[in-house]
């Protein structure tokens, strides 16, 4: 099988696998500090895409366990698996999660996409201050523009690696799902090429106003006694150390995200999203767990109320607390935090999109319904699951792949049809050993929570 592809950013040799060819570390962009990247300039020589590319700057860069991995601001590369470079296969671009602070191509979160049916691409994008800061004399939405540049590379080179440019899906978990939702609501015409999106525990909740993003930056500068101009002159490690110092023990997963800048994202982003849906007929599968933040159960009720809530929601923490009775228990608060962060935004996204296109909802109870539980469930080897869960996992995986490949989460061999999310608000309920359809109409959602869940 052919193992060399000649792309707009260079010629790359990959590694043949059992069911295709894998390329690692393909360059797609040149980053500039706090500036949107430009396309990578092709080199005449043959590049060996056989080992992990440079990873985005993050806390792991200071960990000696990763001494054989390079971390840098110059991290705009992608991994690509293709069943056959000479074929014509559906393309899936996966954006990883990690709270806009962690992540990369080192660990494959969705290995099931390397199944020989689709082309699976995972781009790196800049994280934290490097990609999502709002700095004077810098650009906004740098990380988002990295993602757009990666998508454009895929479109420009689809025929080189056996991809169908008319069948591109975006799949993301957590911050990856939030990124995809923002991309679809952005002003970039590149996103008109997308046919399907899969949002695992992440949707439209992190688009924030400029004022909030500026206050986040002020916090970092104040904690480090720096000006925003100083941030341009720090080394990669120096900027990362400043970031880590400001974060400290905070749960900073919501401190960064896409910004309404009246450039890539406009104040009327909901209208932009609906207009794109009407023009392109993209289809959406949106998922959330039943107890997304159960992993915070080790925190005391006072820590949750006085620290965690502020980190996750800013001034909107007052809205969350108003939903609770005076004598609420920690379990009630935990469940409500998870709903506000993930489950309610997923439902709200489905509600927004249901009148103008095909939307499918998923309410997951696997692995306690925790954040990322269904993605972990899909990635678990079938033989490692309890016997009574193995058939259910195969069904779920088949339905997800049917949506990605055919645009419908339906298979003639299964005795279940995933319902459309419409006025009846039916979703697929995923239990460890069963799949069923339930309506979310009677669910009591949070009242008066803004679309922008994190606000300062």
Automatic annotation (TrEMBL):
<protein>
    <recommendedName>
        <fullName>Carboxylic ester hydrolase</fullName>
        <ecNumber>3.1.1.-</ecNumber>
    </recommendedName>
</protein>
<dbReference type="InterPro" id="IPR050309">
    <property type="entry name" value="Type-B_Carboxylest/Lipase"/>
</dbReference>
<dbReference type="InterPro" id="IPR019826">
    <property type="entry name" value="Carboxylesterase_B_AS"/>
</dbReference>
<keyword id="KW-0378">Hydrolase</keyword>
<dbReference type="InterPro" id="IPR029058">
    <property type="entry name" value="AB_hydrolase_fold"/>
</dbReference>
<dbReference type="Pfam" id="PF00135">
    <property type="entry name" value="COesterase"/>
</dbReference>
<comment type="similarity">
    <text>Belongs to the type-B carboxylesterase/lipase family.</text>
</comment>
<feature type="domain" description="Carboxylesterase type B">
    <location>
        <begin position="3"/>
        <end position="433"/>
    </location>
</feature>
<dbReference type="InterPro" id="IPR002018">
    <property type="entry name" value="CarbesteraseB"/>
</dbReference>
